[in-house]
Amino acid sequence: MVIIFTDGSSRGNPGPGGWGTIVLNDDTVAELGGREDNTTNNRMELTAVISGLESVSRETEIILYTDSAYVVNGITRWVKGWAKNNWKTSTKDDVQNKDLWGRLVTATEHKVIDWKLIKGHSGTEGNERCDVIATSFADSSPVILYIGSRDRYGVSVSIKESSGEKNKSKSSDNKKRKAYSYVSMVGGKIETHKTWDECKAIVNGVSGAKFKKSISPMDEEEIIKEFGNI
């Protein structure tokens, strides 16, 4: 089993950026990092993940931790639809970062990957170390990258309950919570509705229609972004 932590950073969006990755095997640890002069945070998040996966051999089981919902949603939910639609979104726009999504798809082939979305800057040392690596490269002052035995690695790789199981329970709790709004997408048009009856009138019986309940203004915004990238 291989464990990978990743993070990306950019000073401006676009601006100078960096990425950091930790790859843990049973006995060894390898830190990876890099920089681009003109990039975005999303591109650095993707590059960190790609670099980690490309360093691992095929037929490997991997747990990958990232704080990027963009990466996790993209590779587990959106990318198949993008590829099927010739790398176009539902609104017929070009998918952003198509080059990196293509590399990521290739990097996942013949690997069993458990994608774990964790909260950034929440005390998870593996994630915090990747952030240090990424920002140091973005600032053109890269830290020394560790490559050596796992026993001598000074970073804890334990995981607090903030990823897989917590996300599952959160999803279950959201279903029980009172709706803030309902978001629909029909024919590429995204709308918000205050009641389920209003939403149902729009989506009921319409082929390809999508809808989801939001529980807060922030949740509504995330759903709108999600639908916009499908």
Describe what this molecule looks like in 3D.
The chain is α+β, with helices and mostly antiparallel strands. 39% of the residues lie in helices and 28% in strands. The chain contains 7 helices and 9 strands; from the N terminus they run βββαβααβαβαββαβα. The strands form 2 sheets. A 6-stranded mixed sheet has the order 5-4-1-2-3-6. A hairpin with a 4-residue loop joins strand 1 and strand 2. Helix 1 packs parallel to helix 3 (98-108). The longest helix has 16 residues, at 69-84. It is elongated and about 60 Å long. The two termini are 32 Å apart. Mean pLDDT is 88; it is low at 161-166.
Label this structure with key terms.
230 residues; alpha+beta; 3-stranded antiparallel sheet; 7 helices; 28% strand
Summarize the structure.
The chain has a 6-stranded mixed beta sheet with strand order 5-4-1-2-3-6. Strands 8-7-9 form a 3-stranded antiparallel beta sheet, sandwiched between helices. It has 7 helices and 9 strands, in the order E-E-E-H-E-H-H-E-H-E-H-E-E-H-E-H.
Q: Largest sheet, if any?
A: 6 strands, mixed
**Mean pLDDT, nearest integer?**
88
Q: Supply the number of helical segments.
A: 7
Instruction: Estimate the helix proportion, in percent.
Output: 25-40%
Over the alpha carbons, how many angstroms does the gyration radius reach?
Answer: 19 Å
Low-confidence stretches: 161-166
The SSE order reads EEEHEHHEHEHEEHEH
Distance between the termini: 32 Å
Query: Structural class of the helices, strands and pairings?
Result: alpha+beta
Strand content: 25-35%
Report the count of strand segments. 9
